[in-house]
């Protein structure tokens, strides 16, 4: 894999598991960052039995999830707006014919508008880059990124994703909500999302994000428990410092 230098949070996991020459296999996934999530996605995709299933990786970073999913044969549309991450992701994908065949690379983020905006990167965790909202005033050229609407993308590419993974540092609602009408007719069977309460509180969209899924008829699962709106689990999730949630129908 093509990696950031040592000192980057995610890259260091890969170095520890075998360095930049880490081979892409199902077994090697066990020892790398977020392996539990990745194994669950691969299990669900295998049980679904469709070798042509389409996956969206929204917030691709350097491509850990994309690489393993595409290597298993699935078509992955990956979105990564930050050039420093995207260049490494592209480097990895284009150096492997199997990945190049199965990955659609998108050097832009997703939002509720199509625009240019500013992203702030974290030098010790480039995957934690945060989109700062609309506009590019006082933004450097390096940190100016493009965002587009997901519904436009899905219609343009004529795809119906089976599984979605999203991790965009509190920007999840803005990224997914434009596709709500599309998802009513073509709901992904599984959506895996990071849920960091402080990020959502900054955007004021924690409740709206969960409501998006409830309105679409999804079950929301956290820590192996279904989270009903207004329940104790719901209140606990709203207060959780960090959570991985799974929406399914």
TrEMBL record:
A molecular-function term among this protein's GO annotations: methyltransferase activity
The entry's keywords: Methyltransferase, Transferase
Signal peptide: none
A Pfam family: Methyltransf_21
GO biological process assignments: methylation
Coiled-coil annotated spans: none
Domain (Methyltransferase FkbM): residue spans on this chain: 57-219
Domain of life per record: Eukaryota
InterPro entries: FkbM_mtfrase (IPR006342), SAM-dependent_MTase (IPR052514), SAM-dependent_MTases_sf (IPR029063)
Protein name in the entry: Methyltransferase FkbM
Source species of the chain: Rhizoclosmatium globosum
